[in-house]
Amino acid sequence: MNKLESLLADLVSGDESRAERSVSALLELGEEALPALLDLTKSSNADSRWWALRALAIAPRAQTEWLIPFLEDPAPEVRQCAALGLSEKADEAAIQPLVRALSDNDAMVGDLAAKALIRIGKPAVSTLIEAAQNESQPVRIYAVRALAEIRDYRAIPALMRASEENSALLSHWAQIGLERLGLDMIYLKPV
After folding, report:
1. For the whole prediction, is pTM greater than 0.85?
2. Rounded Cα–Cα distance for residues 37 and 53 (Å)
3. What pLDDT score was predicted for residue 182?
């Protein structure tokens, strides 16, 4: 068994300590490890897919498009890992898939997707504004939260509308966003 095979065996051993050590060693192998990790993402075992994505997420030469399909993996823990990995990559190519992941029925996936969109920052703002206005309530909350964290002035109208919603969470994140943009005044509709 060569070094790469040994490290891959450690990665899928079921022993978290061994697997985590193997991630570092696989990264030291560089591009040599990437094809084997990509093959491992095709495993029927969710744990194996998770560890392969874990390594790919932090591999400097791994590409964003390798992680995106796993936002739709059947296993929620794999979807979580993909969203977290995309947060590390912070690539504009992931904006639309991450916005779709905001509606995942696993709340952790939605939360991690929102954090990844925050890391992408200003390039995600227009898509987040649209999601904050047109999507389901949970997606709108994540989108408004992301807009509050990104702090882009283009989001002011969407944040203003969200602050007037009959939703404590939407209003909360909208107010935080407005405060962070220096607009922490109370707005009253004329009677």
Report:
1. yes
2. 8
3. 86
